[in-house]
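Team,

Forwarding the record for the chain on the shared tracking sheet. I've put the sequence and predicted structure together so nobody has to dig through attachments.
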Amino acid sequence: MNKFFLFFVFLIIGLPCSNAQETKSLVIKKIVCTASPEGEAVPALLDANNIAFHPIDVVNWKEYPYKPEVSFRIAHTGKEILLHYKVKEASIRAVADKDNGRVWEDACVEFFVSPDGDNSYYNFECNCIGNLLIQGGVVNEPRPMASPEVLAMVKRWSSLGNKPFEERIGECSWELTMVIPVTAFFKHSLNSFNGKKMKGNFYKCGDKLQTPHFLSWSPINLERPMFHCPGFFGMLTFEE
């Protein structure tokens, strides 16, 4: 999602950022992993631990009715979050060719998470070839991007490879994984995910695809597309 434009709209219009409806909750299973997995190993690892998929299928804004098939599954090892997305959509685009680029304009999946359950949160936004944007900070304030060193900590794998391309029209299925260590939360001092209660949401967008769309896991009750609103995050409970 074009966060710079929407942040401006948020400030000018003064959209509310509180939740007036029930949000979702998710228990994130802890799995045993003797070594930090590579991104391409995540699907098989989650299969072996019977980690289920959850749909990202909430169409929050009637102006953007298109709903590609999107699901995710998530687990943790204590020190890392393991994320696996599956997507089937009518077109794909991967123009952002490096980290901290305009990945939300491409076929993009996103994970927003607040470690303390407040207005301080991180956005992990990844296009369909694995280029990643990370920011951290408080809503309504400047939110710095992660350094190259922090970005390098997050392992990624895409079924589409890692070469950029212009929009391809026609139904395409793709998968993406991320291995996010506690050290990627660069504005916090986290030692472990064990037993943590956080808030977060999972998204699918594509601002410059032939059919723009803005899907979420947990509903967002705002008049205009806006993902940067922690008041609508769901509850995430990490197993001990």
